[in-house]
Amino acid sequence: MKIGAYFKDNLYKFFVFLICYILNLLIFLAFKVEKSVIISSSFLYVICFLLVLLIPYFKKKKFYTNLLDNIKILDKSYLVLETLTKPEFYEGELLVSALYEINKSMNENVRLMEDYVQDFKEYIEMWIHEIKIPLSTLVLMSNNHKKQFDKKTKLQLKRLEDYLDQVLYYVRCENAEKDYLIKETDLSKVIKNVGLKNMDEILENKIDYVAENTSYKVLTDSKWLEFILGQIINNSIKYKKNIKNSYIKISVKEEDDKTTLIIEDNGIGIKESDLKQVFDKSFTGENGRNTRYSTGMGLFIAKNMCCKLGHKIDIESVYNEYTKVYITFAKNKYYDVLK
Description:
Elements: H1 3-9, H2 11-30, H3 35-73, H4 90-144, H5 151-173, E1 183-186, H6 187-197, H7 199-204, E2 208-212, E3 217-220, H8 222-238, E4 247-254, E5 258-265, H9 272-275, H10 285-289, H11 298-309, E6 312-318, E7 322-330
Parallel strand pairs: 2-4
Antiparallel strand pairs: 1-3, 4-5, 5-7, 6-7
């Protein structure tokens, strides 16, 4: 609270004081009051005016400085009301009362929106589970009646299934703690399951799917990890080069305090200018602009899920040479290992 701005805001009080002083002086002169009395009373008049002006200033300054400082310090500035002490002036009481009513109204509206969003998420999740039933039936029919379903049809069914999974995990990611279960998981089983799920596309694109030295156990949620790994594998397939020896190589590196899952491919790679943004929501980059089916959501969801699980995900790439994705699992003794 700046004193200059305060005085400017109270400038009218100075003019009122000046008019009153002049009228008082005229009365003193009319009654021929002694000069020493006039000077003394004028001095007292000025002192009283300054006290009337400055005492409220210092009261207000303490309150408003505290208010502004707390707003700057708090990550969630709307919680500032909880940090304020009771003001010692009436305007401050009115302000605190108004903030309380505003905060109460905001909380009520936020609660309504949260309930609406939660209901919508639950509906979407239920709808996805329902739509997966006929989709799974179609996938089963395509495998049992291969003559009636060509490869293009099977590819579209697989793509539809992947996008549904992507939506499902995106919705769940907001309340991940209600859905995942951290326990000791065999990486080789996760890698095998992801390979089987994407087998048709891997074979169709003539890609060697190689898993080396993967028999390690980490603390994670196997279902969530399968989805994360699936998004990375899908990208490797989507952005392969038209060469004979295309591969997706998966390996594990173990250190004293961490275990790292490495997914490497020799596809078209990622341009250096795009590397910092590959985990951003809806970012497709140069490769995405050249690919019809790129949404830019796969790695974004994978990153969020890794953060929820306490894992770290990094990416390294040289354009037109290779791409490596690293998922790091910390060996945290505070995890409650469920067997």
